Description:
Low-confidence stretches: 1-14
Bound molecules: alpha-D-glucopyranose
Structural class: alpha/beta
Largest sheet: 8 strands, parallel
Shape: globular
Number of strands: 21
Amino acid sequence: MSDLDVGGSEAPSTARTDAEAWWRTAVIYQIYPRSFADADGDGVGDLPGITDRLPALAELGVDAVWLSPIMVSPQRDAGYDVADYRDVDPRFGTIDDLDRLVARAHELGIRVILDLVPNHSSDQHAWFREALAAAPGSAARARYLFRDGRGRDGDLPPNNWQSVFGGPAWTRIVEADGRPGQWYLHLFDASQPDFDWTNPEVREEFLDILRFWLDRGVDGFRIDVAHGMAKADGLPDYHPPADADSMGGDEEDVPYWGQPAVHEVYRQWRALVDGYDGDRALCAEAWLPTAERTALWVREDELHQAFNFPYLMAPWDADVLRETITESLRAFGAVGAPATWVLSNHDVVRHASRLAIDFDNPQGHGIGPGTPRRPDRALGLRRARAATTVMLALPGSAYLYQGEELGLPEAIDLPDAARQDPTWFRSGGERYGRDGCRVPIPWEADAPAFGFSPTGASWLPQPADWSALARDRQRADPDSTLSLYRTLLRQRRERGLARGRFDWVDLGPDALAFRNGAVTVVANLGTAPLPLPGGRVVLASGPLEGDRLPADTAVWLEPESIG
Ligand code: GLC
């Protein structure tokens, strides 16, 4: 079948000066700091907790960690609402704690990437408070997107845009003199006002923020809402299709997503980062409908990586996955960037549940007690293990989300009173949102809060049956999901798969089958067992039936003569 040379001599990547850079092949593990490890016992994870637990990640075999936001924040959107971009939130620790974390990670050979949120600040940011106190038309207002309202008394929002979390994307303020005043744009929560990125002062400020953290030795940034920031001139009304994904992941031509002006910003950032030693890297969180569009964010003079959300959003379907993988390798390869792969993060239903969902569940909607059908847990885990076995054999860089190495499912039965995602509140409880993928992870089956926190406190309740999924239970079990991940990561590294040569293999419509160098990968996405081609089994996502590959199972094979 088709043959995509992603590492060979004609590939554009070899022409680039960064051809050997670590981020081209890295497995990057996302830490959600609130839910990883809590050292001080207040029920919210923190930086000392992360530092203590880093050896577990070294043992797992990851190359880098990305920390979801740790900067000062009122936490209305779990840190994606930053009040001070140059300090650490006291809930997570101090800036010295971060220095210690980075130093320890580097000792263990793990790089550290921070999350940077440039589309919007918190409404508690000094600039926004200044803007509220200042007059319409002032320089302080011009850092954000304040506009007069429509209608007779300006009492209608300036346009019809909707917030990603539900409800209008505009909030009206009360002016300093007590009268109803202008409106400000917030694509997310009302506590997250959008910056005006046409303003040079905003651009300068963020260059300075980048320098601040790069000077402290961080290895790069994950850039939040990297497809936002630039808005279409005149802020025109927009009428999305009824079933649209609110982050724009399946829509073309949204006036606030993927606007061309955003690329100038990244060219400046790339130039700045290139001035630093040590191969620092920038990764875009850009929800765009195709790999072709996403690849625009990683052209040679822009960002290093972009999350491959078309891959994350692909259903468990061999044809769709074949097309998505082919298109990803083609589109990223065409601009000389590594393809990236991701199945879970803190915004989507965990893939051990998502892959068994047989109904429509747009990104960010979540599942909860009132969801009409529950994903089958055993089926979800089987598919998740197979999906990861495929993903970690693909050339390029891959992202893991904390807890997926334990096979954690989405926490479905969270009580309403525990929910914290603004999506839940802004949609009037219509969308469960993302709390179900953010529950603190289990470390030790018999410890308080399963080892998450010494006091047993946990900001979201942990399902009781997660004791069986705790890391200490899985470590010693060769068939556990944790053992599978460790094996996958070790074999991926030893066999150089991240830089491998990729060829599709035709084993029928239900088989997702390809070769990466000497390894042949076969996943069965059908319902009946498939005959396996010859070869020695390197690893398998689940039990095999003799020389047949059961449904929802994946395997890596190598020629008998090797090893
Ligand atoms: C990104 C983050 C998400 C956050 C949103 C607003 O999509 O991943 O968690 O709510 O941006 O900052």
